[in-house]
Structure formats: C-alpha cells, structure tokens
Write a structure and sequence with these properties.
The protein is mainly alpha-helical and 568 residues long. The chain has 27 helices and five strands. The chain has a five-stranded parallel β-sheet with strand order 2-3-1-4-5, sandwiched between helices. Helix 2 packs antiparallel against helix 3, helix 6 packs antiparallel against helix 7 and helix 8 packs antiparallel against helix 9. The radius of gyration is 28 Å and the shape is globular.
C-alpha cells in the first residue's frame, strides 16, 4: 500500500496524471477501506480540470472524514470551478465554524460573493481580514477589489490614509496607478517618485516614471529613467521598445547585443515580444526592412498564438459585430440632446491620424481633450448588449426606444465632468457606432480619419494594443479582412445619410494649413494660431503616437508601406 501511495504522489508531482489515475483506481479496488486513495483521485482529476469527477471523489472522502480541512478546500475549489458559488459558500461557512478567524477562508468567501455580484458582502469579508491583520497583503486584496470595480475614491481613502504608505514602496506605486487611471498625472508622479525613494533599484518603478514623463511630453526625463531601468534589468523588453520609439537610432554594437539577448531568451514572454519589436524598429530606421519584418512577424506570431488564441477568439466574432451593428442601428430611434455640451468624436481605424487630429483640435482654448475614453461603448453595451453576443432574431423585440436612447446619452454624460462646451472623445473604435452617435448625440461633431490602406494596416501591425477591440491586428491576413469590413461599414453609414467630416491623413500631411482651417470651420469655432502650432501643446497623450504628435508635421510616414512591398 505504501508503495502505491509513493508512486501516485510521484506521478502527480511529475504531472503524469494518466499514470497516477491508473494506479489510484487499481488501489481503490485493492484497498477499499483506505480512504486516502479517494482524496488522491480527487487531486488527480482536479489537476486535469475534470472538476465534476474531482468533486465526486472529494465527497466520497468527506463521508468518512467530514472535517478534513484540505479536502473541504478541494471541494470549495471544485464548486467554484463549476460556478456553483452557492454550494462553495455553504462549504466555506461549514469550514468557518471549525476554523474561525481564518483569513484564507474570508478571502474565498469574499471572492464567491464578488462572483455572485454581492459586492457589499464581498467588501465586508475583505475588511474583516484587515481587522484581523492590518498588513500590506490584506490591504492590497481590498484595494484590488475596489480597483476592479472602479471604486477609486474608496481605494484612495484606504491606501492614502494608512500608516504603511509612509514606508512601503508597493503601496505608493499602487496609489500612483489609481491617479494615473483618473488622469491626475501630478499626483501619479508624486507617489511614483516616493515609491522610487523607498525602492531605488526597482526597474518597474523606474520604467513607470519614464513612461509617465513620456505621456507628459518630457522626453529628456523619460530617457533618463528608461535608461536607469535597463541598467537594473538589461533585457527589459518594454523599456527597449519605448526607447526605440523615442530615439530610433542605435549603434551597430548595441543593436547586436539586443539581437543576441533576444535570440538567447528561453521564455517567449512579454519581454521577448517587446525586444523583438524594438529590434524591428531599429532595423527599420537602418532601412534593413526584410530583417525588420522578420522580428516584427516573430513578435506578432507569439502574441497571436500565446495570448489571443488562448482567449478563444475567432475572426468570425468580428464579422458578427459588424452585422449586429447594422441590424440594431436601423432599430435605433432618434433623440434630442438634453445636454448643451458638444462632443467631438474623433474616430477611425487605429493609427489613422486620430491622435494628430485631437492634438490640433485640443490646442484650441475652447476645446477640452478627454483622449480615449470607453464611455460610449460601455453605455451601448449596458443598454443594448454586447454586439458580439446579441442574437439578431426576433429583432422587433429589441427596438432601441426613445427612452433607451436617452438612457445611453445620460450614462455617457454622467462620466464627463468638465466646464468646456466642446470636448474631444478620441476613441478610434467609435467608428463602429457613427450612426448611433448621430441619433443619440444629434449636436455632436463627428470626424472620421482615413489613411492609405496599406500604411494604416502596416502601422497597426507594428503596434501592440492594450485595447482588446483589436485582437485581429497581429495577423496580416486578418487585418486585410477587417479592413474590408471597415470599408463596408463606412459605406453603410454614407448610404444611411449620416453626416460626418472625413479627414484624409495624407491631405493633412501634404497641405496642413488648408486642412486645419477646413477642420476648424466644420467645428464652428474661431480660428486660433495654436491649432497650427499644435506640436507645442503640452497636454498629456496616452496613445501610441505620444511622441509623434509633439513634432511638426513630417511626411516620412506617407507611403511607408512600399518599404515592405514584398510583404504586401
């Protein structure tokens, strides 16, 4: 019997679950009174994500030993994996009676209430842990809960008013991240610099300071902190990538060192991906386009295989979204705006010039820049449904009524607290909703940015997007298919007589003064010199174009795709 126990545990540790299962089944028949084999079988099935079977053998074990803590916890994890949170809570409360004031149990109870949507009870159990032990770990659990549910005021009160903030770098770093989300960059930088003083050699903190200075337009300070970061972590891919975007020139010796580092990395993680993109950028600058493309394709292939495919995404999802948008637009009733503010929607495919247009417009004293904000898509999804998941049959029951349109408008404006009458919403994906915008915000200004097809798609292929709307952009054949869907949708909006201003990127680059004048005239605001010297605008920029829009207009990005003509 001891021999079987040893063999099974050995095979479990080696993740040879088929072998472990075979021996365990045989042992259960051979030693029917040895309950331990039932628990080992439960572990084997749980490790293979066969949660129903794992739960079956856990319950067998618990019939004999009903109070055994590890088995009860295994039961909880199985019930959670099967999304049976009510049963998981029942098991946890049974455990709580035996093991009172247990912080791990409180955390699990909180998680189950959170999944059920009972945020009040979830918060209670996270707070209970802080009472039991007011240390960093429990503080961060409650912080992460608040952050996940966008309760930013609560998490700032929690962290800023805790004594631990004076001596803990991680807490200061987390506060900085919240202020960054809230676009309070002054406070974000303040806490980041305090985090650095408490942990001088942390490459992540140094990287974040460098990134924040980039957002604020201070390239010199950004370079200083990026360089300090890679002094501490020489293979920090993200930092190398950001450096390549600010200063795309590199001497041959340093480039070969980067290539050597990239070739010798065993783990194909984010560092590997960003290193590849940095090398691609440097090679592009040296006009070694074939080599540049080699590293670019390598990085994108890994993103697609290891990250996008793991999310069960298929291109058909995108086609379905476009179909649903058209179907539900025709059911959307027109509204009259209750709000006197005039949103300026700047939209189009990513990398089509949307950031440049916003930089020009927001240089005007009457216009407030909000950058990329998710409010419109969020309001549409909450009131209509996710266009990826809506079923279009029985559409008569899904008419978007006048009251629903008003609700979408109210949900959008409640997120915006500004004094200016004009503000920009530069969220590229909103091109998907041009028709909805015209009905929901009848006084809005809509600017569609278009760019040479291949220049646009190449630029997208060279970009890593934090936005999950662009999962198709890491495979060029998918980009081409997506562009067809995009062109077809724009034709749909034009056929429906939707009014919007179309800005052609190449026209703006070749003749900026004339096109900026036309743009200002469309918006109905007075001409100002600042709009023509937009590159002096020091507003924070959070998009991939943060360094480009702070320079005078240049033409090197026009027809860039021809350097990669063989690829196309």
């Amino acid at each position: 019997m001891e021999k079987e126990f040893t063999s099974i545990k050995k095979y479990i540790s080696e993740e040879r679950f088929g072998k472990a299962e075979m021996i365990c089944k045989r042992s259960i028949k051979k030693y029917p009174n040895q309950n331990e084999f039932n628990y080992l079988m439960a572990i084997i099935f749980h490790s293979q994500k066969k949660f129903n079977l794992s739960l079956k053998y856990t319950n067998k074990f618990l019939k004999v030993e009903p109070n055994q803590k590890d088995a009860l916890l295994t039961k909880v994890y199985n019930e959670m994996a099967l999304q049976d949170n009510n049963s998981a809570l029942k098991t946890l409360f049974f455990l709580e009676k035996i093991y009172r004031y247990n912080q791990d149990l409180n955390t699990l109870i909180a998680k189950n209430y959170e999944i059920k949507g009972d945020l009040f009870k979830a918060e209670h159990y996270y707070k209970l842990n802080i009472k039991l032990s007011p240390g960093k770990e429990n503080l961060l659990k409650l912080h992460n809960f608040y952050k996940k549910h966008h309760q930013y005021t609560k998490t700032l009160n929690l962290l800023e008013n805790n004594k631990i903030v004076e001596q803990n770098s991680e807490i200061n770093h987390e506060i900085s991240k919240i202020y960054f989300i809230l676009r309070n960059f002054e406070n974000s930088l303040k806490y980041l610099l305090r985090a650095k003083r408490l942990d001088e050699d942390n490459p992540i903190i140094l990287k974040d300071i460098g990134f924040l200075y980039s957002v604020l337009g201070n390239e010199d300070k950004s370079l200083i902190f990026y360089k300090k970061s890679i002094e501490k972590k020489s293979d920090y891919g993200f930092v190398h990538f950001q450096l390549s975007r600010i200063v795309p020139k590199i001497n041959e010796k340093k480039l070969q060192e980067l290539i050597f580092t990239h070739q010798n990395k065993k783990i194909k993680d984010e560092n590997y991906i960003f290193l590849g993109l940095a090398i691609s950028t440097y090679l592009d600058n040296k006009k070694q386009f074939q080599k540049s493309l080699f590293y670019l394709k390598k990085s994108n292939t890994i993103i697609r295989q290891d990250f996008i495919n793991n999310e069960n995404w298929k291109f058909e999802n995108e086609t379905k979204i476009f179909e649903n948008v058209k179907t539900f637009f025709d059911l959307c009733e027109t509204n009259y705006s209750f709000n006197t503010k005039i949103p300026i929607f700047i939209l189009g495919l990513p990398r089509s010039g949307t950031t440049l247009i916003e930089q020009i417009i927001s240089s005007h004293t009457d216009v407030y820049s909000l950058g990329e904000i998710p409010y419109l898509q969020t309001a549409l999804f909450e009131n209509i449904g996710n266009f990826n998941k809506i079923k279009t049959h029985n559409t008569n029951k899904e008419i978007i009524s006048f009251s629903k349109v008003q609700k979408i408008q109210k949900d959008y404006f409640k997120e915006i607290s500004i004094n200016s009458d004009f503000f920009t919403d530069k969220t590229p994906i909103n091109y998907m909703y041009i028709g909805f915008i015209s009905k929901i915000f009848p006084n809005a200004k809509i600017i569609l940015c278009n760019r040479n097809k291949f220049d646009n798609l190449l630029s997208m292929y060279q970009t890593i997007f934090s936005d999950k709307n662009y999962k198709f952009s890491y495979k060029f054949s998918d980009l081409l298919k997506y562009h067809k869907l995009y062109v077809d949708l724009i034709k749909f909006w034009k056929n429906r007589k939707i009014n919007f201003y179309e800005m052609i990127y190449e026209d703006l680059i070749i003749n900026p003064k004339t096109n900026i004048k036309k743009l200002i005239n469309y918006l109905g605001i007075k001409e100002q010199d600042d709009c023509f010297s937009f590159f002096k605008n020091k507003r924070p920029v959070l998009t991939a174009s943060f360094n480009q829009v702070r320079k005078p207009i240049y033409q090197t990005s026009v027809q860039k795709w021809k350097n990669y003509e063989e690829f196309f």
